[in-house]
Amino acid sequence: MTSASTRLTHSTLVVGLTGDNELVHSAALPDPGALAALASAVGATSKEDAVVRAPGTAVGCDVVVFTGVGEDANPEALRRAAGSVTRQLKGVEDLLVALPSDEPELLGAVAEGLAYGAYRFERYTSRPGAVSSARILVSRPKDRALKDALARAVILAEATALARDLINTAPADLSPEAFADIAVEQGKANRLKVTVLDESALAREGYGGIVGVGQGSSRPPRLVKVDYAPRSARFHAALVGKGITFDSGGLSLKPPKSMETMKSDMSGAAAVLAAVVAAARLRLDVRVTAWLALAENMPSATATRPSDVLTMRDGQTVEVLNTDAEGRLVLADALVAAREDGPDVLVDIATLTGAQVLAFGTRTGAAMGSEDVRSDIVAAADAAGEHFWPMPLPEYLNATMTSQVADFANMGAREGGMLVAGHFLRRFAGDTPWAHLDIAGPAFADSEWGYNGKGGTAFGVRTFVNYLENH
Ligand code: BES
Ligand code: ZN
Ligand code: ZN
After folding, report:
1. Statement: residue 6 has pLDDT above 70
2. Is 254 a residue of the active site?
3. Does residue 314 have a pLDDT over 70?
4. What is the mean pLDDT of residues 26-42?
5. Per residue in 363-372, is it b (16+ CB within 10 Å) or e — as a string?
6. How confident is the model at residue 328 (pLDDT cuts 50, 70, 90)?
7. DSSP helix/strand/coil, 63
8. How far away, in angstroms, is 293 Cα from ligand 2 center?
């Protein structure tokens, strides 16, 4: 992606429509005069995801693309409108994008949207026609703040693509070990310190939760620590991601339909890896430690049985009443490990409960935990154009995870299941300020919209980057 150019000939020009189908465009667009008439002639509208192509000879270019921005041209609306273009347009190589981009925040949003929408997952098949390059029209192309915003957008786009690639990869090709190898590679490329605990280290060091979840699979679990520790950092965030590379449910086997998207049950781990890589590439002045709790949840003769008791890293014992409530078990151990470094905050992110999907749908995450961390996350998400809604952890639900044989069980009341899971994790977060993010709904898109195609969305990556930038 490059910037300034005002020559329109031989180009596909992109402009937006908002409100009552009013044209919105970059201040650098030389002559918007005839565009409004053209938009109404071809019936283009401001409706989100409405992308309409028109011949551009009357306005001095080859093709004009009108994209619906919705009610008003705020950064997230522009991000979606730009992404909708690159997601939907086929057979166009180079775009000249004249959406409003004259402020750093708007330029960043437009650039991000273009890149997110142009993302294709092509490991197993090619997807013809993706837009391969775009130029964005800006009035002050030499402006430092605009250049920085563009560079940041590129880093976010690459981090998002990394997370999406991981989520979209078939689970046969992404064992816990293979995922750990990718984290090691990312560490090398970005000068991060990566530590991998394999199954024997995990057993030796008392990670009963991760071992218990992973023992049904022929492909053993891993706990990966990815540390970005700039010398001058005065704030340390530990980010813990659920990394179930495939969730069959274990012996509490899921029905076939529910299993279809369970390759995405490692979206939390993908998000924390992408976030620490982005933090390093942005040279943020905060220490970020990502923890990837990786296991494959499979049924087999060696699998954990309902009623088995696990001793967790901190010594607490848990009766596994349902092997499909495995995410909390791997996260619990990882939270304990993360706390051992004494971070200032602890944030976990997970595709944790079906209850989250039922309550929030597929575009909103849920944030629980310490009020200050939770509200910082919610604010960072709002600014990033992702949405996390704050949720309480009512105390009475904590008491529902009773066990006759262990300290507590991995399940409690069915009603409020997302909050019960939050309480479970809270028991392992200790006194460290902590937030728990459940992204079961928004992690994976079953339908296309804005800058998201079907598949992994990388939800949470931008929220983390904004959160870290705020410290
Ligand atoms: N990975 C699932 C949660 C999930 C469901 C994520 C749908 C994305 C979409 C999780 O491990 C799970 O199965 N949770 C159970 C917990 C229950 C047995 C207490 C659930 O929510 O049903
Ligand atoms: Zn499960
Ligand atoms: Zn799961």
Report:
1. no
2. yes
3. yes
4. 92
5. ebbbbbbbee
6. very high
7. strand
8. 14
Mapping DSSP to helix (H, G, I), strand (E, B) and coil, where does residue 287 land? Answer: strand
Closest atom of ligand 1 to CA, residue 264: 8
Atom of ligand 1 nearest to the CA of 258: 7
Contact assessment for residue 442 and residue 459, using Cβ atoms and an 8 Å cutoff: yes
* CA pair distance 341, 247, nearest whole angstrom: 29
Q: How far apart are CA 12 and CA 234, in angstroms?
A: 47
H/E segment holding residue 17? strand 12-18
The rounded mean pLDDT for the chain is 96
Structure tokens, 268: 């939390």
Residue list, ligand 1 pocket, CB within 6 Å: 247, 265, 322, 324-327, 351-355, 357, 411, 417, 440
Say yes or no to pLDDT of 47 above 50. yes
Cβ neighbour number for residue 119 with a 10 Å cutoff: 25
Ligand 3 centroid to residue 258 C-alpha, Å: 11
Q: What is the pLDDT of residues 356-397, one digit of tens each?
A: 999 999 999 999 999 999 999 999 999 999 999 999 999 999
Task: Identify which of 58, 130, 61, 139 has the alpha carbon closest to the alpha carbon of residue 106.
Answer: 139
Q: Which of 304, 321, 330, 353 to mutate to test the pocket of ligand 1 (most atoms within 8 A of CB)?
A: 353
Question: Would you state the pLDDT for residue 434?
Answer: 98
| Distance of alpha carbon 413 from the chain centroid | 29
328 catalytic residue (yes or no): yes
Q: Write the CA distances from 418 to 264, 329, 427, 439, integer angstroms.
A: 18, 15, 15, 11
List the catalytic residue out of 140, 254, 363, 426: 254
Active-site residue, selected from the candidate residues 328, 339, 374, 427: 328
**How many degrees, rounded to 5, is the angle at CA 341 between CA 340 and CA 346?**
85
The rounded distance, in Å, linking the Cα atoms of 450 and 453 is: 8
Q: If you measure from the C-alpha of residue 217 to the centroid of ligand 2, how many angstroms do you get, rounded to a whole number?
A: 14
Ligand closest in space to the Cα of 322: 1
Position 292 pLDDT exceeds 90: yes
pLDDT at residue 323, as a whole number: 99
pLDDT value for 90? 86
How confident is residue 7, by pLDDT bands cut at 50, 70 and 90? low
Ligand 2 centre and the CA of 461: distance in Å?
22
Return d(Cα 424, Cα 3) in angstroms, integer. 49
Ligand 1: which of 318, 323, 324, 410 to mutate, most ligand atoms within 8 Å of CB?
Answer: 324
pLDDT digits (tens, 9 = 90+) for 48-104: 999 999 999 888 899 999 999 999 999 999 999 999 999 999 888 889 999 999 999
φ, ψ for residue 399 (rounded to 5)?
Answer: -80, 0
